[in-house]
Amino acid sequence: MYDIVVIGAGPAGGQTARNLAKRGHKVLLVERYKDFSENDFSSAGMTLEPLEEFDLPNSIIGSYWNDLEIQCSQYKYSWKSTKPKGVVLDFKKLRQYLADDCVQHGGEVLMGYKYISKEIIDSHVVLTLFNTKTSKSIQVKATLVVDATGPLRKVMFDDKEAQPKMVLGSGTEYVIEVEQEVYDKFKEKLVFFLGHKWAIKGYSWIFPMENRVLKVGAGKTHIKSVDQEKTNATTKIITEKIIEEYVQSKNYKIIDKHGGILRYSPGIKDRFYHNRVIAVGDSVSAINPRGGEGIRYAMQTADLASEYISEYITTGKTNFSNYRKRWRKKKLLKWRLSEFSARRMYSRYSDIQIENRVSFFHKNFSTDDMIQSLFNFKYNKMFTRIVQLMFLKTSYLLKGQKF
Ligand SMILES: Cc1cc2nc3c(=O)[nH]c(=O)nc-3n(C[C@H](O)[C@H](O)[C@H](O)COP(=O)(O)OP(=O)(O)OC[C@H]3O[C@@H](n4cnc5c(N)ncnc54)[C@H](O)[C@@H]3O)c2cc1C
């Protein structure tokens, strides 16, 4: 019998379990894989802020980055810095750390157990969990259950239940070991690919990890349903093309191949709470729909949800509708703008249009402006600069001069 059972030990589930254990609640964190290296799917690139925001240790950092580079079909555009601007995390170490910290504060963790079903009995939820090694099932009881199963929303929705309309995405990533001179070309920078030569309906990337290790991947948005086979085929082809033709390592070794899907509800129309189940992370479309950056936001929903969960366990007050309201108030407009810009950049623009946009940003915006816009969704400086340029252009035209 637990106060809270959290299903899924990704960034959202791990952070929720860790928070609630710290507050003294009886918590169980359940993960279907027996080891975090089995689903080490995320590139985990981000800025420096989340390290402090969630009090994360240096031991989970794969590498730091200073520079941003956008490679379009024709030209490459760089924004450089002399200081670290962000990190690429070791995703398995991040999740292991969160689970360990939960245990450190009195919580329990069950690895290798898959959530199968739930039943509400009186004022409790009875959960059936399947041991993936022994094929035996166990049952646990909880006052509340947290759905942290990511894009599948396995606990909030029963298998046949209709879910809100979703936009779908998918990604493939190879982790490769390369020669020192090849690694040195890519170290300390995040390279993004935009345009139709190096990406298909999305963007691709090269992120550095520890010395001589690179993460190379491609992400794609889908119009219709995700067919896992076809999905992997397209992003796999692009990833391999980047490794062969762009990274140009003669002797690389593949350390891991992985991938994943994204399911995002436009307008964040997700169910946040229903019948003793509260959802966090990708299960409530926390992920940003333009960049697919989701770790920080998964952990932010965990922090917000933890407040209401703890209040409920302590006082019996159910304020879960405020959890949904506060999250949507914080993100809805920014995520709507991201949906709009993703649709244009990935599906509508020609190579020339993409090149023109990126070149405009390169001429007019600093590294910090780009980071604020790409990672923090703060556009104040950009809007101000664009308005200034429009005024300037009008005054030139009125004087009959060329802008
Ligand atoms: C290829 C790729 C690259 C990405 N790169 C980045 C990046 O660079 N930066 C960034 O910020 N974000 C990135 N993301 C997104 C980010 O990884 C996700 O948004 C984030 O992991 C979401 O966290 P979560 O905890 O909500 O879900 P998840 O990380 O998906 O965790 C869900 C967990 O639930 C478990 N689970 C599922 N079903 C069950 C079940 N029935 N029983 C028990 N356990 C279950 C899963 O095994 C998993 O461990 C990337 C995503 C992909 C696919």
Describe this entry's structure for a reader.
It is a single chain. The protein has 403 residues and is α/β, with parallel strands linked by helices. The chain folds into 3 domains: 2-44 and 90-164 and 265-338, FAD/NAD(P)-binding domain, CATH 3.50.50.60; 167-264, D-Amino Acid Oxidase, subunit A, domain 2 (D-Amino Acid Oxidase, Chain A, domain 2, 2-Layer Sandwich); 365-403, no CATH class. It has 10 helices and 18 strands. The chain has helices at 11-22, 49-53, 91-104, 180-186, 228-247, 295-315, 320-348, 351-364, 367-374, 380-398, and strands at residues 2-7, 27-31, 45-47, 61-65, 67-71, 76-79, 86-89, 108-111, 113-121, 124-131, 137-147, 167-177, 189-193, 202-208, 213-222, 253-264, 273-274, 277-279. The strands form 3 sheets. Strands 1, 2, 8, 9, 10, 11, 17 and 18 form an 8-stranded mixed beta sheet that branches. A hairpin with a 4-residue loop joins strand 5 and strand 6 (76-79). Helix 1 runs parallel beside helix 3, helix 1 runs parallel beside helix 6 and helix 6 (295-315) packs antiparallel against helix 7. The chain is globular and about 80 Å long. The structure holds flavin-adenine dinucleotide. Flavin-adenine dinucleotide (FAD) binds next to helix 1, strand 2, strand 3, strand 9 and strand 12.
